[in-house]
Amino acid sequence: MPERRTRRPDRRSKPAAARPARRAAEPRTDGPLLELEVGDVAHGGVFVARHEGRVVFVADAAPGERVVARVQDASKDRFWRADAVEVLEASPDRVPHIWAESGIDRDPIDRAGGAEFGHLRLGYQRELKGRVLADALSRFGGVEVAPAVEPVLVYEGAEDVGTGWRTRVRLHVDADGNVGPYAARSHRVVPVASLPLAVPAIERIAPLGQPFRGAEHVDLIAPSTGDAQIVVADARSSRSAPPTVDEIVAGRRFTVDRDGFWQVHRGAAETLYRAVQDAVDDALFDPRAANLDLYGGVGLLAGALLDRFGETVRLTTVEADARATEHAGTNLAGAVGVRAETARVDRFLQRLVEHPTAAERARLADATIVLDPPRSGAGREVVDLLAASGARQLVYVACDPVALGRDVGLLRAHGYELEEVRAFDLFPSTHHVEAVARLTRR
Ligand SMILES: C[S@@+](CC[C@H](N)C(=O)[O-])C[C@H]1O[C@@H](n2cnc3c(N)ncnc32)[C@H](O)[C@@H]1O
User: Fold this and answer.
1) pTM for the full model?
2) At the fourth CATH level, which superfamily is domain 16-106?
3) Which GO MF term does the entry hold, naming one (predicted)?
4) Residue 11 Cβ contacting ligand 1 at under 6 Å
5) Cβ of residue 372 lying under 6 Å from some atom of ligand 1
6) Is 182 annotated as contributing to ligand binding?
7) DSSP of 340-394, one letter per residue?
8) Which ipTM value was assigned to this complex?
9) What single DSSP character describes residue 320?
10) Architecture category of domain 130-156+247-441 in CATH
11) What is the pLDDT of residue 236?
């Protein structure tokens, strides 16, 4: 029997600029049909075409294709949005969609969302993601780099197929009690018979086809320890402490609220743990400096630093969510130099850089700062404060290429240089890509 709980808001929130505008209602079935030559990939999982001089961002297409697309949003002068509905000339990189219920043979209103690159060869998806990242770093960051997007396996020895990786899945419930994902770029619930992006444990327990009248959504969770779980969220309040799950990464145990933030791909937490360990230049790392893990969650990346540089490292992990900080404190207990603080990063840094003593200023200037902000990135205010700290080394974990490009540009204007950037396919068959960058003070 699934449990019913009230859910806190999703903390990896996406800013409007970082995703295609949500079509709040249902996709249109009556928009005009256009024949389009499809150009390059754009940010947000769409492709650039032109119609009578106007840019049309078209979904479910591929560069070089000729498609018929239905216009979904013609409200702006500068660009329209459309969904491909028929392929007239197919890209050699087009494959049958990994999720039949997302395929182009369905009307866009009935296409399950969340697998917007599932119609493209996996290697080609990564090429496109690499292009988007390189373009964002060039345009907004002023740096020319072309990182290859590295595959991430679900477990060692697993096949690299782009499916079976999600350990957290949210299904939505409509007024009639139907459960399923939203259609792409809309709030229409699409009942489905399969969840190919999910790990098998979630596929097995998913209550597909069952009515959930009165529920807001259904969360499916498959932690790395224990059984997969179904949690039904409704509007009622709950006073009890939220249940937790345990995740193991490189032998280290992390307790996290069941509805708290954790990396979604089965291999993601370990990939980022190792990538951050590798990214830190140990010649620049001072264990006694005022090292920071910003947007620290339950302490995953702080744990990576401790496991690389030893349990006596001085390190503060900063996180806005009090429950996550509480867990970080417990997960990192035993490391004498570690402090877990509940604070907004901007306020924490403001306090830190405001009136430091000479000794504090020196400890900050020697610091390595890891930051892993939500999709909106750190932003100008936090970047200004990071620069004011004078920290010698920044390791920036980013899930939005444009936000990373913007922040790299801002940091470069403050005298930081991008030393290296790696990219990881933590979200196969979607347009999302994760990057880990190291910047150092000039
Ligand atoms: C992408 S997650 C990273 C968490 C952690 N580094 C990990 O890998 O598990 C971003 C975290 O930042 C927190 N967060 C979002 N905005 C914040 C802010 N302004 N100040 C502090 N933490 C924030 C969220 O609660 C979330 O835990």
Assistant:
1) 0.93
2) Nucleic acid-binding proteins (2.40.50.140)
3) rRNA (uridine-C5-)-methyltransferase activity
4) yes
5) yes
6) no
7) EEE--HHHHHHHHHHS--HHHHHHHHT-EEEE---TT-SHHHHHHHHHHHT-SEE
8) 0.99
9) S
10) 3-Layer(aba) Sandwich (3.40)
11) 61
